[in-house]
């Protein structure tokens, strides 16, 4: 009975060590186990990326925030009379009582021309980098005679001598110049009012001289603002005709917002020039408002100065293909040992898998001190050379190790191309995987999956 059990155990062990199915199962289990250190590396990349975001946010906050600008807006007070009838207990009669309240009307410019020049400045702290900018914005235009007929306001009820100008903007702490506006040849200073519910700060001028108020004729204006800012520059098209031109040395702009550019071109220095032209009929808001001036920030447009894929984002994308790299590499070794009848021990599979996982730790650590391209080449070359030499000790010749090294080089190159692509990443990845699947199907077509190798297991 004991001898029978011993023979049974030997048969099971022989099947376990020689069966193609058993080897395939072991390879699959090892692949899944290697997902544990790979997931830890992905957590490490996320942690380093979050730390970078914190440093970048701190640098941007100290330098200057996003810029959103619209103005000037003509603010004119007017009197609103209200009559009510009240019963007088003394006279025993109904008497009319008249109350007067001050309301405000807001009028946007007839013409609004904005020219902005944005020059980027790199900032670095320890291993983390960001890009901020310095923006010079020159605004000019004109106001036409305000129209109060919509509210049937009498001419005598318009308080022209209390008219002011408003400029709405964010990032006041990033302003580098005093805010002065020239209207009809005279300069006016601005004071800061508390920000409204949309977190937009309001700058208001002193009262405009009667000779400068556009009550009877068109009045022209111009002003210049210089900012330290980051991330984006946005404008709201409050002019009846709004023309915006932006130039910058930034090579990766993203034009965003409610309106698209009418013209854009790349400059010789790699920067860009963009132009927008908008009419009041292109936008869903009025040219004038009474009593309340609504928030118009959601109608803004402009440019986001986005940083292209940084090393952490690219490393994260590379790590997402870790399962593919490990799985395909193990598949190559599995096909080689199946077709050549050379046995490979599970421990050797494990060493190869750990070398593949080490690629990502090398990649993230080197990329913090160099460019992602250099880090990818160094890490990839180190892993390919290590696995190729280790394969030579296992497979005893150079034919298969050279093939493995070439396959790994092609696989890492393919993944790098996918990482760099944006619009066509999914297409290129799908085609590549389809080709790889076809090659595997072609190579494995003649394998007898029910046969057992008679050669005993030998380790290197």
Automatic annotation (TrEMBL):
GO cellular component, one term: plasma membrane
Membrane-traversing stretches: 20-41, 289-309, 321-340, 347-366, 372-390, 402-419, 425-444
Pfam family, one: CreD
Keyword Lyase in record: no
Keyword Transcription regulation: no
UniProt keyword terms in alphabetical order: Membrane, Transmembrane, Transmembrane helix
NCBIfam families found in the cross-reference section: PRK11715.1-1 (NF008712)
Protein name per its UniProtKB record: Inner membrane protein
């Amino acid at each position: 009975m004991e001898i029978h059990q011993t023979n049974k155990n030997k048969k099971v062990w022989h099947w376990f060590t020689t069966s193609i199915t058993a080897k395939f199962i072991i390879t699959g289990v090892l692949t899944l186990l290697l997902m544990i250190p790979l997931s830890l590396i992905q957590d490490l990349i996320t942690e380093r990326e979050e730390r970078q975001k914190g440093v970048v946010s701190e640098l941007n906050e100290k330098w200057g925030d996003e810029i959103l600008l619209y103005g000037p807006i003509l603010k004119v007070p007017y009197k609103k009379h209200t009559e009510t009838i009240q019963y007088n207990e003394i006279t025993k009669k109904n008497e009319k009582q008249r109350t007067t309240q001050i309301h405000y009307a807001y009028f946007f410019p007839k013409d609004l021309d904005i020219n902005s020049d944005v020059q980027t400045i790199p900032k670095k702290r320890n291993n983390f980098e960001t890009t901020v900018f310095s923006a010079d914005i020159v605004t000019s235009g004109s106001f036409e005679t305000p129209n109060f007929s919509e509210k049937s306001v009498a001419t005598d009820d318009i308080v022209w001598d209390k008219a002011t100008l408003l400029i709405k903007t964010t990032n006041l702490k990033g302003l580098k110049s005093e805010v002065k506006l020239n209207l009809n040849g005279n300069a006016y200073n601005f004071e800061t009012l508390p920000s409204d519910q949309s977190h937009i700060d309001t700058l208001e001028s002193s009262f405009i001289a009667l000779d400068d108020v556009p009550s009877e004729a068109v009045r022209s204006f111009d002003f210049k603002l210089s900012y330290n800012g980051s991330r984006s520059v946005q404008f709201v098209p409050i002019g009846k005709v709004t023309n915006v031109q932006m130039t910058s040395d930034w090579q990766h702009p993203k034009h965003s917002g409610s309106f698209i550019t009418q013209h854009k071109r790349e400059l010789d220095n790699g920067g860009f020039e963009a132009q927008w032209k908008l009419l009041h009929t292109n936008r869903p808001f009025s040219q004038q408002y009474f009593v309340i001036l609504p928030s118009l920030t959601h109608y803004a447009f402009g440019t986001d100065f986005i940083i292209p894929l940084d090393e952490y984002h690219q490393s994260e994308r590379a790590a997402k293909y870790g399962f593919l790299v490990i799985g395909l590499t193990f598949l190559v070794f599995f096909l080689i040992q199946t077709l050549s009848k050379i046995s490979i021990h599970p421990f050797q599979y494990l060493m190869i898998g750990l070398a593949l996982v080490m690629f990502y730790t090398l990649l993230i650590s080197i990329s913090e001190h160099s460019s992602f391209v250099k880090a990818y080449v160094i890490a990839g070359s180190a892993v390919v050379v290590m696995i190729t030499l280790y394969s030579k000790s296992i497979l005893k010749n150079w034919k298969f190790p050279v093939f493995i090294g070439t396959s790994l080089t092609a696989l890492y190159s393919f993944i790098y191309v996918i990482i760099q692509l944006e619009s066509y990443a999914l297409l290129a990845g799908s085609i590549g995987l389809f080709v790889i699947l076809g090659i595997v199907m072609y190579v494995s077509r003649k394998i007898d999956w029910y046969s057992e190798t008679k050669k005993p297991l030998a380790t290197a």
